[in-house]
Amino acid sequence: MSASPPTLLEVERLTVSICRRGQPFHTVVEDVSLTLPSGEILALVGQSGSGKTMIGRAILGLLPGTAAVTSGAIRLGGTRLLGLPAAQLRRIRGGEVGMVFQEPRVSLNPTLRIGVQMMEALQLHRDMREKRARACCLDMLSRVGIRDPQTSFESYPAQFSGGMLQRIMLASVLATRPKLLIADEPTTALDAISRKQVMDLMVELTGEIGAAVLLISHDLGMVSQYANRVTVLRNGRVIECGTPDAILLNPRHEYTRALVGALPRRQSGNASPPQPSGDPLVRIHDLSIEYGPRRGFLSKPATRHRAVSAVSVEIHRGETLAIVGESGSGKTTIGRVLIRLLESTAGRIVFDGVDFRRFTRERWVEFRRRTQMVFQDPYSSLDPRMQLGEIVAEGLRNQRLSGEQKRGRAAEILAEVGLPADFIRRYPHELSGGQRQRVCIARAIVGEPSFIVADEPVSALDVTIQHQVMQLLVRLQAKYGFTVLLISHDLGVVEQVANRVMVMYRGHVVELGSRDDIYDRPCHPYTQRLLCATPRMAHREEGGYALITPELRPAEPPTGCRWFDPTSTPSAQPTLVEVGRGHWVCCDRQEAVHVS
Amino acid sequence: MSDESAREPTRIARPGPGAIIGLILVAAVLLAALTGSIYTPFDPIGIDADNRLAAPSLHHWLGTDEWGRDITSRLLAGATVSVNIGLLTSLFATTAGTLIGAAAGFIGGWLDRIVIAVMDALLAFPSLIMALGIVAVTNGGQMAVVGALSFAYVPSVVRVVRASVLTLRRKDFVDASTVMGNSRAFTLGRHILPNTVGMVIVLATSLFGWALLAESALSFLGLGVPPPAPSWGGMLADSRNYFEDAPWLALAPGLAIAATLLGINLVGDALRDRFDPRTRYL
Question: Which superfamily does CATH assign the domain made up of B88-280 to?
Answer without folding.
Answer: MetI-like (1.10.3720.10)
